[in-house]
Amino acid sequence: MVSCTGSQFCGFALAETKNRAMALMEKLEQQLELPRNVRVHFTGCPNSCGQAQVGDIGLIGAPAKKDGKATEGFRILLGGRIGENPELAKEFEKGVPASDLEDKLRGILISEFGAKLKAT
Ligand code: SF4
Questions:
Q1: How confident is the model at residue 115 (pLDDT cuts 50, 70, 90)?
Q2: 33-85 pLDDT, tens per residue?
Q3: How many angstroms is it from 71 CA to the middle of ligand 1?
Q4: In a mutational test of the pocket of ligand 1, which residue from 2, 43, 59, 77 has the highest number of ligand atoms less than 8 Å from its CB?
Q5: Interacting residues of 57 by C-beta distance below 8 A, sequence separation 6+
Q6: Separation of 23 CA from ligand 1 center, angstroms?
Q7: Of all atoms in ligand 1, which is nearest to the CA of residue 48?
Q8: The CATH number fitting domain 2-117, selected from 1.20.272.10, 3.90.1640.10, 3.40.50.2300, 3.30.413.10
Q9: How far is the C-alpha of 33 from the C-alpha of 31, rounded, in Å?
Q10: Separation of 9 CA from ligand 1 center, angstroms?
């Protein structure tokens, strides 16, 4: 996981990133078995200091709405590749409320990256 500094220390940020990213990744690692490492890049605004476009999953801080009210959110990009055949990630979904990210990322990891829920 990579994250820019986000709203904790950056005036450009449209979303909190680092602490949110760490908490989310810890939760998802507890819930899921993954067949391979997945590179998740969080960045708080389109300046993309966290290089969202090269992540398997990239998250870019963006406005969102939940229950009709403005809230912190993210655009989600998928499919960024580095190495011999590099590719920029493509937009998967816009305007995802930050509070929905755990469910959304769990679903993406299962449907797109072969993750399985751990037995409880
Ligand atoms: S991507 Fe945006 S929010 Fe993150 S450190 Fe860079 S300028 Fe700040």
A1: very high
A2: 999 999 999 999 999 999 999 999 999 999 999 999 999 999 999 999 999 99
A3: 18
A4: 43
A5: 38, 39, 40, 41, 76, 77, 78, 89, 105, 108, 109
A6: 19
A7: 1
A8: 3.30.413.10
A9: 7
A10: 9
Q: Which two tokens stand for residue 32?
A: 């899921």
Kindly state the helix (H) or strand (E) to which residue 59 belongs, with its residue range.
strand 57-66
Pocket residues: Cβ below 6 A from ligand 1 = 4-6, 10, 12-13, 43-45, 47-50
Are 69 and 55 in contact by the 8 Å Cβ rule? The answer is no
- pLDDT given at position 18: 97
Q: How far is the CA of 115 from the centre of ligand 1 (A)?
A: 30
Question: How many A from CA of 41 to the centre of ligand 1?
Answer: 12
- Please report, for the chain, the start and end positions of each structural domain, with discontinuous segments joined by +: 2-117
- The pLDDT-based confidence of 119 (bands split at 50, 70, 90) is confident
